[in-house]
Amino acid sequence: MTRCLSRWTAAALLWVAFIPLARAETLAATVEQWGLLGSWAVDCAARPDRDKGALLTYEIRKDGRLMYRRNFGDAKDENEVVSATVNTGGLLNVMVYFPSLHQTREFGLLLAKDGNLRAIYNRSERGEYTIRDGKYVATGAPTPAQQRCD
Description:
This protein has one helix spanning 2-34; strands at 38-41, 55-60, 66-71, 76-86, 92-98, 103-111, 117-124, 129-132, 135-136, 147-148. By secondary structure, the protein is of the alpha+beta class. A ten-stranded antiparallel β-sheet has the order 9-8-7-6-5-4-3-2-1-10.
């Protein structure tokens, strides 16, 4: 009985140890298959600028974590992507934890047939939108298409 219990305990510990690794591989596979990895900008030739367009980069670190880096020219940050799922319409739903904001934000991205990326929604964990239905809530202007820069 003790021997059987020890085997089950060892098996459970191994299973728990591999859960984060499996999640990271699933997350990485999702964004890689969808086509998100790399750097994106409205204009890849322009220098990153908060008002004219940031350079946004999605990359998988050696430890398996998916990171979202933002370069605004005068400021940069790096944040961990905690989940990514694709819905039936092809929209990639991404959740990113922003330590500097003390919040998780969710955004939906659509990859057009021409290879351009467009933000369809962006909301806080409280459900407050900055982008809804492909338009900025504050102005009603459509979100610009981003192109791959690498």
